[in-house]
Amino acid sequence: xxxxxxxxxxxxxxxxxxxxxxxxxxxxxxxxxxxxxxxxxxxxxxxxxxxxxxxxxxxxxxxxxxxxxxxxxxxxxxxxxxxxxxxxxxxxxxxxxxxxxxxxxxxxxxxxxxxxxxxxxxxxxxxxxxxxxxxxxxxxxxxxxxxxxxxxxxxxxxxxxxxxxxxxxxxxxxxxxxxxxxxxxxxxxxxxxxxxxxxxxxxxxxxxxxxxxxxxxxxxxxxxxxxxxxxxxxxxxxxxxxxxxxxxxxxxxxxxxxxxxxxxxxxxxxxxxxxxxxxxxxxxxxxxxxx
Length: 291
Fold this sequence. Notes:
CATH architecture: Alpha-Beta Barrel
Oligomer: single chain
Strand order of the largest sheet: 2-3-6-7-10-11-12-13
Structural class: alpha/beta
Strand content: 15-25%
Mean pLDDT: 96
């Protein structure tokens, strides 16, 4: 029997533009179609960013997120959906928490929660303590599971602090991201220290920025972790940057690597049960029922 792993698909992000790569999905219909293809290939969950329908610039507007979620759930009602609450382009609580206000069949299962401020190559993601705690509090009140985004070991410690403050609770899901210029690097020492410091009852996926994506995805499959992959983190198929990737190609390659390691993608339903979430098909977010 093959061991299963979380495959977290990140199709769009905030950085890639059509000028950088024609393959990045920007419009509602493009994102919905890319996720449709991904669900047919096999994924566990999707981490979504929305873009303004006119300018293509990242947006917080829940009306656009609603269209994306509605489109995806017409064909994948069990797929775990996480909506981005990023602080790169805007940092008002009302804006960042807007996607969390969707309800019913549009309610997200998860919301991203970056656990500290950090610098990227050209921009900063500002996440001050009150913002982090406020977003965590809103998610807990609305039974939405935080997707804990971690770029260095201090952020893991902050997750433990949030638990002590009763703002997050197990089971946890962490994205561990490596290769950003100002954070943990894509090497075995940084990876081992980060994984070793995770709290009990934590599931995790490894991600690599740019050229480090394939390396970190491959490592995680080999050592028993999950994978975060998509054009959000890397637009190239090869390290030499000769070929622009499609999301489908990146996902298909992960399946090949997983098969060689006798592992297979965890189903959304299996992930929902492990994370104590509702089972989909009309019920979303945290569940307090026993399965």
